[in-house]
């Protein structure tokens, strides 16, 4: 048993570190998106001013500015979609971590001998199971949302 427990503990640590690294990468990307949003906003403001103050500008110049503005809007929309996907991924990671914690807690209750469990232990075990089911349902809902989003984008 000790070797098996050691392996399970090692795999749990590895999974935890994997989630942690993924969360850090997501956070970095969200920060990059925020910076890009600000840059796009500033560029858009400049283009809007140019279009408003178009006195004497050639028509092809105005068309070019309009096209640039539309490109900025498209880029901003694609970044918003990416940001939305990343926020869902963050929520999924949180739920995955909660599920892991609750699963660990539930196993500790279930590993106890039934005759040694107090009524409080039985109640706590049932509450933990209910929380675990809630988390699993929330993760399922997130997966469903992602799938619907993916299908709507197609």
TrEMBL record:
User: What compartments host this protein?
Assistant: Membrane
Stretches assigned to coiled coil: 23-50
BMERB domain location, by residue?
A: 13-154
Recite the UniProt keywords alphabetically. Coiled coil, Membrane, Monooxygenase, Oxidoreductase
Please name the Pfam families in this protein's record.
bMERB_dom
Among InterPro entries, the record links this protein to: bMERB_dom, F-actin_Monoox_Mical
What GO molecular function terms would the record report? monooxygenase activity
The principal location of this protein is membrane
**What protein is this chain from?**
MICA1 monooxygenase
């Amino acid at each position: 048993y000790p070797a098996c427990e050691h392996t399970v503990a090692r795999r749990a640590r590895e999974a935890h570190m994997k989630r942690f690294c993924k969360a850090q990468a997501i956070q970095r990307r969200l920060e990059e998106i925020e910076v890009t949003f600000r840059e796009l906003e500033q560029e858009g403001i400049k283009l809007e001013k140019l279009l408003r103050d178009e006195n004497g500008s050639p028509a092809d110049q105005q068309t070019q500015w309009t096209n640039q503005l539309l490109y900025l809007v498209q880029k901003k929309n694609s970044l918003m979609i990416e940001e939305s996907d990343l926020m869902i991924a963050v929520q999924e990671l949180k739920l995955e971590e909660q599920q892991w914690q609750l699963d660990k807690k539930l196993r500790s209750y279930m590993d106890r001998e039934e005759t040694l469990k107090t009524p409080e232990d039985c109640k706590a075990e049932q509450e933990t199971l209910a929380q675990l089911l809630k988390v699993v349902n929330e993760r399922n809902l997130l997966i469903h949302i992602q799938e619907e989003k993916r299908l709507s984008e197609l």
